[in-house]
Design goal:
By secondary structure, the chain is an alpha/beta fold. Helices cover 42% and strands 13% of the residues.
C-alpha cells in the first residue's frame, strides 16, 4: 500500500511537529486508545495523535459520564497505550478533580501522568479559569492540550451533551478562552461540539492547532473515539461520528460461531490439537 498513511511519515510526532503541520496546512489525525493492542494498530495506521481519554469511563467501564474516572484509572490505561506506540504523540487526559483544586495538585498529577505512564503530554478541560494551572504545568516542562466547547467533565453543570456556543455570549467565551489558553502555553486545543463557523474562526485566530470533534472541517485536525468509528460502542451514534466499520456485528457473529463450534464438537479439530 505505497500511498497509504502507514507508508508515510516514520518520524516521531512531537508538539513542535503538530505546529508545523498547522503552518503547512496538513490536517492532524487523532483517535483514542485505552489498551496496548489498539494503540499499536493506531500507531501503525499513521495516526498523528493518540489520546488516552477519560472517555474510558463510557467506552470501557460502562458508565454514563466521565466524572468518576480516577488518576489511577488513567495512569493504568495510559501506561498500556504508551507501550504500544512508537511514532504517534501520546496525550493523557487529566481526570475530573485531578487539576481543579489548585495548581500545585494539578502539577503533581500531570507529573505523575508523564512519569508513571510515559505519555508525552496531558489534556485538561476549561478556558481562562485553568490558565494559571496550564502555566504551572507547562513551566515544569510538560506539554498541555486544552479542551473547549462541550467539556464532558462539566456535564452536570451543562445538563446535556447538546451543542455549545450557540449564543453570542458563549461563542465570545470560546474565542476568549482559546486566546487565553494559547497565551498560557498550550500546544493544541480540542474544540468539541460547537458550530463549524465558530471553530473555523478560532482555528484561524490562534497559532496553535485546533483539533475538532463535532466542530466541522475548518479545524486543523479531527479526533473521534476509536470505538465509535469502528462501530464497537453502539449505545448511541453521535451525529459527528462517521462509522468506518461495524465491528460489533462482526465480533458477535464470530463469538456465536465459536460457541456453536464448541457445542457441536467441531472445535478444536485434529489440526488444532496437540
Amino acid at each position: 500500500m505505497p500511498n497509504s498513511p502507514r507508508s508515510k511519515r516514520k518520524k516521531k510526532i512531537t508538539t513542535k511537529g503538530l505546529r508545523k503541520m498547522k503552518e503547512e496546512g496538513e490536517k492532524i489525525s487523532a483517535l483514542t486508545a485505552y489498551d496496548c493492542v489498539m494503540a499499536q494498530l493506531l500507531d501503525q495506521s499513521g495516526v498523528d495523535v493518540i489520546l488516552v481519554g477519560d472517555s474510558v469511563a463510557t467506552v470501557m467501564q460502562g458508565l454514563d459520564t466521565t466524572v468518576t474516572v480516577t488518576m489511577e484509572h488513567m495512569l493504568y490505561h495510559a501506561s498500556l497505550v504508551r507501550r504500544g506506540v512508537e511514532r504517534a504523540l501520546v496525550v493523557g487526559d487529566l481526570p475530573f478533580m485531578s487539576y481543579q483544586v489548585n495548581s500545585d495538585e494539578a502539577l503533581r498529577n500531570a507529573g505523575r501522568m508523564v512519569k508513571e505512564s510515559g505519555v508525552e503530554a496531558v489534556k485538561l478541560e476549561g478556558g481562562q479559569v485553568v490558565c494559571e494551572t496550564v502555566r504551572r504545568i507547562v513551566g515544569a516542562g510538560i506539554p498541555v492540550m486544552g479542551h473547549l466547547g462541550l467539556t464532558p467533565q462539566s456535564i452536570h453543570k451543562f445538563g446535556s451533551y447538546q451543542v455549545r456556543a450557540t449564543t453570542d455570549k458563549e461563542a465570545d467565551e470560546v474565542r476568549r478562552d482559546a486566546k487565553a489558553l494559547e497565551e498560557a502555553g498550550v500546544f493544541a486545543i480540542v474544540i468539541e461540539k460547537v458550530p463549524a463557523a465558530l471553530a473555523t474562526e478560532v482555528s484561524q485566530s490562534v497559532n496553535v492547532p485546533i483539533i475538532g470533534i463535532g466542530a466541522g472541517a475548518g479545524c486543523d485536525g479531527q479526533i473521534i473515539v476509536s470505538h465509535d468509528m469502528l462501530g464497537i460502542y453502539t449505545r448511541f451514534h453521535p451525529r459527528f461520528v462517521r462509522r468506518y466499520a461495524e465491528l460489533a456485528e462482526t465480533m458477535r457473529d464470530a463469538f456465536e460461531q465459536y460457541v456453536g463450534d464448541v457445542k457441536s464438537g467441531e472445535f478444536p479439530s485434529a489440526d488444532e490439537s496437540y
